[in-house]
Amino acid sequence: MRVYFWGTRGSLPASITAETVRTKIVSAIKAAQSRSFNNDSEIEDFIRDELPFTVGRTYGSNTPCVEIRNGEEYMICDAGTGLRDLGNHHMKLIEQGLQRRSGSVFNIFVSHFHWDHIQGFPFFTPAYIPGNKVRIYGFHKNLKGFFEKQQNQPYFPVPLASMSADIQFIILKPGKDYEISGFEISGIEQKHPGTSYGFRFQKDGRTVVYSTDAEHKTSYDSTAREENYPFLDFFREADLLIFDAQYDWNEAVLSKDDWGHSSYVAAVELAVKAKVKHLCLFHNEPAYSDERLDVLLEDTRNYLKIYNDHQPHPMKVDLAYDGYEIEV
Ligand SMILES: [Zn+2]
Ligand SMILES: [Zn+2]
Asked: Which CATH code is given to the segment(s) 1-16+60-138+140-173?
């Protein structure tokens, strides 16, 4: 299966400014000064292979939306602003004759209802097309009511009831196993203001865990996790763990304790203990620049080495960006 990140920014969208674009172009021109290129594809190769990520690209702006691709139906985690891009991509596939005009099924798994996780839904074009099926899954009792509220006056001009697709709301129970569109799926309650839930997806012997907006303490904390900490089982041997590491260690411990998010320190400690194969940091802090996110990733990789008695560890570690795709 493949996992595609449509939105990776936490809390609120973080647009790239004209000043940031200018700075990137200056750095790219400097790096290309002694080079000559025969065609566009050589320029593309140079950007991809030789420019630092922070110069040639950006971590992105959209709020959480992650697609798990395996099978005909869409499997989507959260409905942040990234969902709008997913919908637009689907519409483009229809134009190209690669998708049918209607009759598609979108399964959306909602962690919780903070704006950054639902604000893309009113802009999700496929939900306006008769014949499409949108199934929204979540653990909160008032699942439908929360979606209705966000589109009520005066917040949005089009009420949920006016969306023409067949939209269903399905309430799940944590600790129970479900089979949805060929995936085995379970959930776990997470510490977060208003409570959030993580999802574990399994299919064809592969496991992806989506666990965002969750606060975990680190081993430096007096309430350090015990071996029976339920998240160790939930993350156990995941091929990919998508993990809320919004803060660096200083912020998580000193200034943003109890804000409902975690740090890369907690990410590494839990992922190593649970024998995760690939850890992907997620819910990127909107106030962090591309450069600062790069430092956070570097610090995470360094901490993994320190945590492993200064020996290299086989777990892959990276940081999600809008447009990132992982083969699981
Ligand atoms: Zn969030
Ligand atoms: Zn939240």
From this structure: 3.60.15.10
Q: Which letter, b or e, does each residue of 122-152 get, where b requires 16 or more Cβ atoms within 10 Å of its Cβ? A: bbbbbbebeebbbbbbbbbeebbebbeebbe
Q: Where are the domains of the chain?
A: 1-16+60-138+140-173, 18-30+39-56, 176-321
Q: Which ligand is nearest to the CA of 283?
A: 1
Measured in Å, residue 99 CA sits from the centre of ligand 2 at 33
Give 229-244 pLDDT, tens digit per residue: 899 999 999 999 999 9
Which ligand has the minimum distance to the alpha carbon of residue 195? 2
Distance 28 CA to ligand 2 centre (A): 36
**Cα(261) to centroid of ligand 1, in Å?**
9
**Quick check: pTM over 0.90?**
yes
Cα 79 to ligand 2 centroid, rounded to whole Å: 12
pLDDT tens digit sequence for 94-139: 999 999 999 999 999 999 999 999 999 999 999 999 999 999 999 9
Query: Which of 2.40.110.10, 1.10.560.10, 3.40.220.10, 3.60.15.10 would CATH assign to domain 176-321?
Result: 3.60.15.10
What are the φ and ψ backbone dihedral angles of 184, each rounded to 5 degrees?
-90, 130
